[in-house]
Amino acid sequence: MIKKLTHEQIQSRQVEKLSVPRVPLVLVLDNIRSLFNVGSMFRSADAAGIEKMILCGITGYPPQSGIAKISLGAEDIVPWEYCKTTVEAVRLLKEQGYQVLALEQAEDSIAYQEYVHSSQRKVAVVVGNEVEGVSDEVMTLVDGAIEIPMAGVKNSLNVSVACGIVIFHMAVASRQIKI
After folding, report:
1. In this structure, which CATH number among 3.40.1280.10, 1.25.40.10, 3.40.50.720, 3.40.120.10 belongs to the domain 35-173?
2. What is the pTM of this model?
3. How far, in Å, are 28, 42, 102 from residue 77 at the CA level?
4. Per the omega criterion (within 30 degrees of 0), is the bond before 63 cis?
5. Where do the structural domains in the chain lie, given as residue ranges?
6. pLDDT of 16-37, one tens digit each?
């Protein structure tokens, strides 16, 4: 019989995790409308152990109850900053030596599983607005695009779900998370 861990056992693991180095991955939120999506991405970012998040444009930022309701405190753990525009954020990241990728269906995009992420490479992933995706202006600045292949009739996933899939793939690929 498999027994679930107790709440106390799970809590004791958290102290150990604070000393684990973060994945060299920055998540850039390009005008995300829903505070619930922002909160969900904070929670996934914490679970994957990414370096930080940059919240841009109309994207809501802490402290806001809609974010806190979903993130369950992850907004207090994951480093984050606000940038007035996503274009400004992408330019700064590129100046700092980051490879910037859009999570977007685009010409010449590759399936996220084909992207090889190394813990030696600084990477930023831009996730776009729930309706419009990554803005056209930002797409002209990114180094490439990755996408999640769709097998069904619908052509996209919720932005926070897509974000979680990709950042976990990158965290596992960089061997920061053992599976």
Report:
1. 3.40.1280.10
2. 0.89
3. 17, 9, 24
4. yes
5. 35-173
6. 556 677 888 999 999 999 999 9
